[in-house]
Amino acid sequence: MKELKQLLERLEYECVQGNLDKTITELVYDSRKVTKDALFVCIKGTVVDGHTFATDVAEKGAGVIVVSEDIEVAEEVTVIKVKDTRYALALLSAAYFDYPAEQIKVIGVTGTKGKTTTTYMVKSILEGAGYKVGLIGTIETIIGEKVIPSANTTPESYLVQKYFREMADIGCDCCIMEVSSQGLMMHRTAGFIFEMGIFTNIEPDHIGPNEHASFEEYMACKSLLFKQCKVGIINADDAHYEDILKGHTCEVETFGFSEKADIRATDMQLIHKPGYLGVAYQVSGKLDFPVEIDVPGKFSVYNSLTAISICRHFQVDVEVMKKALKQAKTKGRIEMIKVSDEFTLMIDYAHNAMSLNSLLSTLKEYNPGRLVCLFGCGGNRAKARRFEMGEVSGKMADLTIITSDNPRNEEPQAIMDDIKTGISKTNGEYVEIIDRKEAIRYAIENGKPGDVIVLAGKGHEDYQEIKGVKYPMDERVLIAEILEEKNTTRE
Fold it and tell me: Which of residues 95, 121, 149 is at a domain's end?
């Protein structure tokens, strides 16, 4: 139960009908969940406009309705008009949960790539130093022992504040969260100040009818984080670093390979051992110590530099950082699965041409005997992605194993044929095996000494979506089953 005036205390609004002396039982933005004396916020979505349900929620007993357009409801209902109902929902949610972000330190990570891995690295380091850490991201939200699978990288503002409240209540010191450009554009993270805002990198992505109209808009949305944080920690090597900082209101620190960076990497070395790829480098600048990470590639250096730049603000001991970085793992992000001493096998979420090209380029630097890429593409998605991924794998991999991903309502073979159209533009070798488990079995049974095999596209996902049904399918489980069946056959 909350007093309406208390919920509105930080919001600019106009009371166009009714009075403010009301007690609110619940804050709701889904008309189906409205109960008597609830406050309902009319959100305009891409498909549904909450204003169209105003009469319905009033009849259900909503005591207050927050709008950005004129509505007609019974006179006993209080109507609050605001400029933007999404922004209003964020501020109302913060008040409803008693401003939990003022009780914990919230660290927001934005960028095209690296957000997920960086958040897990930070969580690993800070927990190693004795801090209690909550996490909100693409894969899941973690609150103590509670794990909630994610629908969006950055949840709706009400959920963000609800999660903060739960974190504060169990004694979390901080929350590390991924902040998407969509989340910033839709005010999901409005209503509080981040302790730190992090920028990893930016590349043309998420441009389209249902996302951002242009790269400039995408970049402008990312830059909003640096008008809402105390300290901004920025990748000094990114070509758009100055654009991201336009109009910033925070203190700025930098990381990267650049000599100008506050925390920088020097003497980078690639490490290639049987069944294992990694990277080592020297941290220089405001800190000075060597680091080794069990994840390959230059972008792993960037992710770890980001984590180090954050964690030094928590006065974490260098030895704790080194140990945590060596052990940090992110499900489905270059996740190495030991199946042989002769070759390396990994799972990664790369599911578009840009991310697949970046991944395969990184792995080629390790001079594998062969680079083997297994992937499929999602159904009911742009065909161009299939052509592009096929072409990338055909050019970069020594062998492509085409298989099924989430076919959804399409025929898997039709999707695979589109991938082959892309591969046909190259001289790349390929095989096609429609059943993903059998495709993985083929990759493992035909692995040669020095091979690097990557299972791309599914990453952390533990299902396969076919004709509207999500069937359990975790590649880690499939690999374990294949190895067990292999051993049983030997016996």
Answer: 95
pLDDT score for 429: 98
Which residues have C-beta within 8 Å of that of residue 109, sequence separation ≥ 6?
Answer: 115, 118, 119, 176, 177, 178, 179, 198, 200, 306
Residues with Cβ within 8 Å of residue 313, at least 6 apart in sequence: 196, 231
Q: In this structure, are 213 and 144 located in the same domain?
A: yes
Q: By residue range, what is the domain housing residue 199?
A: 100-327
Q: Which of 329, 334, 335 is nearest to 361 (CA)?
A: 334
Query: In the prediction, which pLDDT does 46 show?
Result: 75
pLDDT in tens, 380-411: 988 999 999 999 999 999 999 999 999 999 99
Q: Domain end: 327, 354, 385, which one? A: 327
Q: Identify whether residues 357 and 221 lie together within a single domain.
A: no
- The verdict on 170 and 258 lying in the same domain is yes
Residue 133 to residue 135: CA distance in whole angstroms: 7
SS3 readout for 429-478: EEEECCCHHHHHHHHHHCCCCCCEEEEECCCCCCEEEECCEEEECCHHHH
What is the predicted pLDDT for the residue at 31? 94
CA dihedral 345, 351, 353, 356 (to 10 degrees): -20
Please give the structure tokens belonging to residue 32: 């189906």
Q: Is the same domain home to 246 and 159?
A: yes
Count of domains forming the chain:
3
- pLDDT band at 491, cuts 50/70/90? low
Other Cβ atoms closer than 10 A to 363: 25
CATH of the domain at 117: 3.40.1190.10
Look up the CATH number of the domain holding residue 50. 3.40.1390.10
Q: What is the pLDDT averaged over residues 448-469?
A: 95
- Residue by residue, DSSP assigns 402-437 as E--S--BTS-HHHHHHHHHHHHTTS--EEEE-SSHH
Which amino acid is it at 189? T
Q: Which DSSP category does 155 fall into? A: -
